[in-house]
Sequence to fold (656 residues):
Amino acid sequence: MSRDHVQSAERSAHDAAVPAGDAAHPASAAVETPFLELLARGASADAYEQPVLIARAEGGPAERIAALEEAKRLALRVRSDLEGRRRREAELSALFETAHDLAGLRDLDAVLRAIVQRARSLLGTDVTYLSLNDPARGDTYMRVTEGSVAARFQQLRLGMGEGLGGLVAQTARPYVTDDYFKDARFQHTRSIDAGVRDEGLVAILGVPLMLGHHVIGVLFAADRRARVFEREQIALLGSFAALAAAAIDTANLLAETRSALADLERANEIIRDRSGVIERASDVHDRLAELVLRGGGVHDVAAAVSQVLDGTVEFTEAGAAPARALESSRAEGHAVRHEDDWIAAVAAGDELLGALVLRGHPGLDPVDQLTLERAAMVTSLLLLARRSAAEAEQRVRGELLDDLLDARDRDPRLLADRARRLRADLAATHVVLAARLDATAPDADQEADARRRLWAAASHLAATRHGLAAARDGGTVLLLPLAAGAGATDLARRTARHLGTAVHEAVTVGASAPVEDLAARPDAVAAAYTEARRCLDALRLLGRSGDGAAAEDFGFLGLLLAGEQDVSGFVERTIGQVVAYDERRGTELLRTLGAYFACGMSPARTKDELHVHVNTVAQRLERVGRLLGDDWQSPDRALEIQLALRLHRLSLPAQH
Fold:
């Protein structure tokens, strides 16, 4: 749309919305219309500046321009939310559709192609491919490729032990290389290297396709540049490999069933008996697919399988299941019987995530056993998807807090928008907390593991409290909102107890004073973190490890710890009640208190200094004791009170 058209449309909307005689107050509909049109046609983010620029060029009133700016901000937020939802739906649907394809398996090649395509999409690699073993020839060959452009590569055959894929097929273990041609762990051959070179591959990850103890093929993910594959990505590809193996296993079972039906046409009664079991298996597959597509959880899967198998199916953590049976199920890839129960391992690659346990059902039909195994596989996908989403949110929260601490020149509006997407409100009052483990690990690996556990616990706490968390300076920093009526000290102590319980070690937490309006003052976070670190160091020096505190807890020492020396706050906490009493009643308790300390805490010398009777001094000091507490003359309290008196005198206006 041209600039003249946009201007004409906006004038028309403006004239229609503003009644006669009230042209100075634009209607919200005229302001919002151009942005609604941009949202409707999916315009780029830059296009949302156009209505504001046009209004400014026309010399529109400031109220209208401000309204346009607000409408633009809301429209961009809606646009960002829509794009984020589309991305999340695309990622989850790839996993869910794979489970759905497997549940309704009809064409093995189509399912394998879908698995390879979705693995490439989720891992973001240039190429993915799947090879199957050929027992007759004793090698492995390409079955499905996605993203490949080289014909020679697509026709490769690898001998057992040759290349990365041959090594995976031979050892039944995943292998990964950052640079294929520089990796000497596996046997290079001219034909394989030529095919890989034609394809331009550099980084390659291969995981085995297992049926029981047997490797039937390899699933690969590869990039045409150097790349480090993370552990979660290896586990995810392992799950896709398990799906591919299950698809092949299911296809083989279906082929065997068709063959049996052809050979046993005269055994109609047996076939009818089996058909009921197969229908139940198909029913549970459909139920599982429906559960996955509508966002069900692992306990919903267990409930659905319980109905189909006419028994009680429960999901348990790995530590709560029988160890030997669980390990046997994971190694074999099948559900195993344990006394009167059946155990199906829920695993991602070599990682055990839990188990599905069918209670009190010793006699289990093979197809029902397969149903239990498929349910365990779907459960592992749900757990991996949930973990990936949680880890992604933790990283985003950490990046935002890092930007608040380090990048003080960032646009405050962008920071506030990012916080809102994480359900954090930078306009609320917050406290910055520095947390650190007190125990020293015996080696670097255990130290790193302890820090990761602390960061994970802090990230979970921040997510549940609508705050932020990041790893920093060998510990963790948190930005948590402060509830109405609560104090920084209470928040620090609760956080220390919570994190200590989560990681099973003592955690010390230092807190800043409350900070406000971080959206407009993002640099305040860095200053508050410095104050929190000082409190943390002070706690450890004072032998208060495993505790939490803020600067206000250290008396006059808090003046040195606070980022912005809170002199008035210290005076108020120390002698505020005496100051208020004098102001209300016109008494001279402060003057008497100052003279008392100046005269070495001697009432006799104080009465001479003030030219009053000694009983008057005693009465005034008794009143001071009631206001400040019985221990006001102890050495520590007396020192703080004298410091507060001097600071109070310095804060008074000069007398001329």
Remarks:
- Residues 1-26, 558-564 have pLDDT under 50 and may be disordered.
